[in-house]
## 1
Amino acid sequence: MPNNDVFISYSRKDKVFVQRLDAALQQQGRSTWVDWSDIPLSADWWQEIREGIEGADVVVCVLTPAYLTSQVCHDETAYALQLKKRIIPVIRAMPDNTALTAAWKGQPWEAQAQHNWEQLRKINWLHLRRKADCNCQYDDKNRVTNPECDGEACDDDDFQAGFASLIAVMDVDLDYVKQHTRLLTRALEWDAQGRGASSLLRGDDLTEAEAWLASGEGKSPERTDLQTQYIFASRRAATARQRTLLASVSVALVIVAALALLAVNRSIAEQQARATAERNFDEAQSLALASLARQLYLNNADPFTALALALRANDLPEPSPVAQRILAEIAYDSGARRRLAGHTAGIRAVAYTPDGQEALSGGADRTLIRWNLASGTITQRLDGHADEIRSVDISPDGRFALSGGMDGVMILWELASGAALHRFEGHDRGLTGVAFSPDGTRAASASFDGSVIVWSLNDYGEMLRLPVNATGVLSVAFSPDGTRLVTGGYATPAQPDGLIVWDLSTGEAVFRPTVPGTVQSAAFSPDGQRVIGSQGSRALIWTLDDAQAQPLALEGHTLGIASVTFSPDGTRALTASGDGDVILWDTVTGQALRRLRGHRGPVASAPFNPANPQQALSASSDRFLIEWDLLPGAEVRDFADQTAVINALAFDGDTLLAASADQTARLYQGKAPAQQFNLPAPITAAALHGSQVVIGMDSGLIELFNRAGGPPRTLDGHSRGVTGIVFSPDGGRVISGSLDGWFIVWDTAAAGQEQRIETGGPVQAIAISPDGARVLSGGDGGLIALWDAQTGQRLWQITGHVNFEGEAERVTGVAFSPDNSRILTGGEDDTVVMRQAATGAQIGLLRGHSGGVTAVAFSPDGRLAASSSIDGSVIVWDATQLQEVRRFTTPNAGMDAGRVTALAFAPDGKTLAAGYWNGHVLMWRLDSLPELVAWARANRDVPPLTCDILAGYGLSNLCGALDAATLAPKTANP
């Protein structure tokens, strides 16, 4: 397989320019792979292309309209993306999006082209463009007939400057990139040869590969799954050969320790060098554990062990921000609080008591188990069935339980005593569902015998028998008012309606949906107006007053859904599937809100906690129950009082101001609104200082309120909408910025203007320095300027945010650090930039958002920075190391409703408020690392990292590096 520095992917129409680029690369001593041939496409030719891409450190894509409308070029791009190669897009001729879409339309490779284009647009482009009036001409074989079109005379961008940038990008983390190529080629050969032991890594090759794997978090190119599998397989084989030798240390990092110890022996300052070596070893081990934790978590291999590994990765005095971020991602995500073990065979059903404090589960071991959910302990075992239990329910008063088994019997239990009060034996085959009526006086049972029986719980007599489906009934549930039943059953040609709603007063079917199919599980909404039923791997929600209407489809599972249920308020639903997942759904939009993964087998049942609908239980054939948090652990509070986009947030002490385009601004103290201000126009900016509230509107008017009461004072000076407004530190002045291109300094006592400063373009964001001496503005065209707050003099101005096409983008957020030394800017180019306040010089570029940035902020102590985006994410950055340490997203991320539009740190730095497009304000926790670790251990199930578990992932060599305290099991508290 050829190994080269660069693979150049290009269209034949751009051959002359590529020859020039290739020559320049070779003059720099860079080896290249370029397909110069014009031979017909063949299998052998494509294999050569693949090998060229596989063996290259960097893939340079020469982007022109011809390139982006070529199937071959898209095939090359797709393969490079698949291998996670470092791709550098070089623009030679700017494509037109509309023309590209038209050219792709109807092509068999249209989807691939769109995906490639989306990925390429996310990467920083280098510009080596030709002038617009220098068009190339071609003969009938796509050969250039006027080669001067790609010569220096036709360059629109300076070739040497652009080429120097290309070399600089290629050299970033060059050793890491070359190791990526080397390991990829070896992993591909190992895979092609059947993954035999003879191709695995050994000795120094293996230890270097493991160190490379550990160091790769956040680097480009990303590691591939195949590379990871190859290294893990190599370690497992090496461990099997040298188990005794490798048991005491993390062999994945032996080379790091060895090099460090060698340095110690040669160092004059031996003690200091030894401390450095130990620190390096610990950090490398931390990154290795964190990297593995994230892989296990994202691949759903073992989310519980993933959390244990992430905690261990942070067991250092100063762990890497990468390790902190991975721990927060795993711990805070909506997920498993605890696993409950007690059944000896698969669990088929589970139900909560009405107070949510207890649960009852039944399964294939023919046993019912009663659980105390506060302690996670078993309080009772009930035996009475001769075959597996398929369904359980608990009475509305919590005193009784029903169980239905494959023995054809339904049993009524008294939970306090554990006594079986009655055995109902009216079915000829096994039971599939049991249910209490809402008033607790009746029970219903469904069976494979095709019938549903309604029983009296007063005299235990049969009240009604419904011949639902001769093939078999699979579920049954009462309506909230107890007057109807919904059944799910098999669909047959004779009876295609799997879901039927029955009137219990007449015994007649009153609703049969128009979408036929077997329904495994069915339930009523809390208001009784809708029903949900599962059909194969999807669930459907029907409105009962319109049988002809198309149901809302919930699609996301890959195998059949065994259980469906509405939340107590009807706005959400849970589905449990044979694919091992539980999905939380929005029942209005049909959007999947959360996918809960943790089971190792099919999930049979997943009810909401009736007393706390943000929690749920699930039962699986893996013999475990799992308690779930349905909200991210980092979410502290959700203020949902406003109905339109939140345009401004501000704190003053324990008071939060939230201003919305619905013309209201609310002050919050604690959980509830403390005061509301109503404005005559949509609010676009607002600020809070003590008793003063200042609010700007899209009309250009500003109102200054006193919280103690009295009429507001109007500040009239802008001709267009107000986009930013801040108080001076002493509250004596207000500074407002506007789309009219001016910012105005107002005297709050006199409600008059002190000065007006023209910025030269629409102002999108403003900030005042903590000492009150300077004002920072951001606006259209990427303009960022610093102003003297007293004189209005402009101190400096730069163009700060540029997109991948080289065009300046709007600056949408600006902020000062608490010590006045740094500024933060965010733009519609999806980036955040840290700069020196004195000069505007760039300190660092923060990338992590996939959409335009909407707001930026510093924490009160300056240790953290935060940014928000239209992509629905809030990212918290370490303001010193400029690395991501937290990321918060909502179920609506990626949709308009989930756009984040405003940010504000609480004065104590413990929480971060984020405002959203849909009018919600969420409070996110900002625990320090010790607080995060404590929260994770208190609220999540952390299994012991036993050597058996580690050996399952080929990491038995880590056993000696794990102390007894880390190995001790932890149990989550409710």
## 2
Amino acid sequence: MRSTSLLLLSVVCGVVVLSLITVHPIHAQARAAASPVQWALAGQVSSAEDGPMEGVLVSAKKAGSTITTTVVTDREGRYRFPASRLEAGQYALHIRVAGYDLEQVRGVRLQPDLRAATVDVTSGRTTTADLKLEKARDLASQLTNADWFASFPGTDAQKGSIRGCTHCHTLERIARTTYDADKMVSVIERMSTYPQLSFPMKIQKLPAPRIGGGLDSPEQRLATWRRQADYLATINLSAGPQWRYQLKTLPRPTGKGTQVIYTEYDLPQRTRQPHDVIVDSTGMAWYASFGEQILGKLDPRTGKVTEYQIPTLKPGAPTGILGVRFDRDENIWLGMQFQGGIAKFDRKTETFQTWSLPPELNGPHVQINQVGPSRSYVDGKVWLQDAGTYTVLRLDIASGKFEVFEPYKIPRPNIYDVVPDSQNNCYFLVLGSEDVGRIDAKTGAIKIFKTPTARSGPRRGMMDAQDRVWFGENNGDRIGMFDTRTERFQEWAVPTPGAWPYDATADKDGNVWTGNEYNDRIQRLDPRSGQFIEYLLPKSTNVRRVFVDNATTPATFWVGSNHGASIVKLEPLDAPAATVFEGARLITGEGNAPIENSAFVVENDRITSVGRKGALTAPAGARRADLTGKTVIPALVDAHVHLGYRKGLSFTADNYTRENLLDILDRFAYFGVAAVLEAGTGRGDLPFQVRNEAWSGARYLTAGHGFAMPNAGPGVPMRDAAFGVTAEAEAREKVRVLAANKPDLIKIWVDDRNGTVEKLKPPLYRAIIDEAHKHGLRVMAHIAHLDDAKDLLRAGVDGFGHVVRDRDIDAELIALLKQRPQTFFEETLWGERQAIYAAKPAWIDEPILRDSLSQEEITQLAKSFSAPITPEQRESALRMLRNVAALNAAGVKLGLGTDTGGVTGGQYFGIASLVELELMVKAGLTPAQAIVAATRNSAEILGLGQLGTVAAGKSADFVVLDANPLDDIGNVRRISTVYMRGVEINRAAMRAQWAR
């Protein structure tokens, strides 16, 4: 513990508790006899001074339960508990509002200590309890640490010198003492012998001081203690029974800060300090005790807690865990503090594996607080930090060897957190300065970056899917972001000064969350607008690590009450952001006649209703978007592309990086493509990693590695991406390996490429198809020959990535397809564009090409149409068009697939998808049929039920066009705006970025 921390008197609860209420049950409003009750408990909170009171927290806890539910009063002072949150039973009610208690009223049942009242909640009814407030009898017991800091006299330096006291206890303990300065010196000296993991319920002794900051002479320490003691004696009760300053409180929550519901889960023992809380993909919350060798698992559905004893590495040293983080497989890694090591908990086997620092690095001062395992799959290494020496370390998991990195010479600033990027380079946050540092994973080179705010104190943070570090600036009173690609910072000052953010984390919706030890408030930032929402927590909560669960909509926030032995879940109840789009011609993607003068409603990321303008009821407060004169179509889905190899005019495997993949997905989104399938040319684990992360561009699906004969799959430089198989057992084993990553489809190459490679043999593709189906996976085949298509259909193939090119389709193939109506074709006519057009097409000169392509790329594309076309090539192209027409006439499912990014597809991501519709029309499809193929059918092929049509319940992914594509299919290229997941794509910003 720092020498500034004090451990003094027993805690007085900072939550205002309910004294007396008026309670009367009423029947639910009867919309219908069988209508369910919406609210279990409701009422109004008011006072003589303020009337109806907004921003009062009302908590309800059932007798015998470990779960407390809290809601907040709205502008009219009303609170409501949903019936789904409170089952029938007896509940204790508490409130939190600074400056008020409950007024004495008659006719209620009080608990013996008069600190809470009980209410009976009855199934099928709404119980109402109107609460009357009066001025608080003991305002000091309600103050947060931030309130005390605002109330204390003194300079910023004097107040800053005691900020560390809150690590272990509240400032109220200090303010209520009667010690004079001399006595305070001895108390501070005693406090300096406790580590930061001590608190009143669990006291431990510091084994040795830290050495990273250099030597601190006894005279300097004593002088510092004396200055602190002198100041503390001016703010406590040493001079009399009353404080010599006015007590101040922060304002109550308002507006969106009241649109929230909290659930608090008690932990088994009061000594549990859930410093870090994280939630896995099954919804289980995991925590570790800051002062004990305890790892816990909470089931939020039942409140059940399961605890595991963490091994002790250094008997006699302080116990407890600080950092808790997942690796890719959601195994849990722990920073073991004074135990001098890290631990991994395997969730499947429920066993621990530990690694201790070697003796020469493992002195009594060692304190391994943080661990960064999230990218360990890249190179088998885990980053960690030692708060005793202020150094960064790296563990080689396989060998158990540790490396030490020393970014600074002693005396060093406090290096607090380690955050790996997508390549497992380490970014470290330096609380003792304004630095964010980088350690290159391959070379070990260290680079330091300075935040715009001096002495900002970056403390803890996370790396998002775009390799941006989000962190709390614990001394700068800001949220910080460092873009590791551009090496630029951005900062946002918190709305209530004195919050001193500890940590920051970004959610799937682009919001960033933070919290702190001081004001019991959680801040949610929208970085795009710079707007914050502040949520007041139900109880005094010593906030440290913050976490969001992105599996919910909206994202759910989790935090440990580090001194309250509980875990808190915060669910925003944002009113849906509704927009009515009206006046456009709407082509829904179902193949029906368009809806003229249409209207459809988008709420958040979903379409909620579709109809005609004037006949559709809009939600209250919805904004309106006038699309008169425009045409709306569903966003496209391109179910056959090859990503990562193309970058400008370059075509190489070296381009296959996360950054390039994300850029290409943005390019597809720019042209109105909502999703793509990488068709069998993925490299390593990267495509699955990107698929499973959140990003702003098109949705990314992948077949991972495809299958072919050895060195006979896709064209160079993609050829080595496919599994080369020669035996049935080998083929089945490779399918099982691939299935572990849950690919969205399996791709096979059954093509000899005009006799240049060996074609995948029938026994092999039969084994692949059979094994894939056992794992619930579908198989798509690259083909060129009619006979291969027929045999693959007999083998059970699910679809084709190209159309038959060697002969005209015959009746036998059509008959086989009618037996398998779900079989699909992706025509990939774009690959034969030169032979189909036979001359430079008019769209080459359209301005839209310049939006994403350089002049060199456009010139190359234009020149390709001047290349000589042989009669054989022309006939092959015409045959393809005839075969597409035949498939369409037979009712076979046709989808959009362009092969963009491959050998013949080129780097024309997105624009090729739009031209493909024109090529479909050249093959005989009507414009309406081409749109259905490119939207609904392709979405169905990829199993994306939320995409493909503009209909109620679907994701709000659509394209606004300036002209009607039913008149001229080329009008799909006349894009006005694009919406993905209900948000307009910033196409101007994309163009500006690509122009640089």
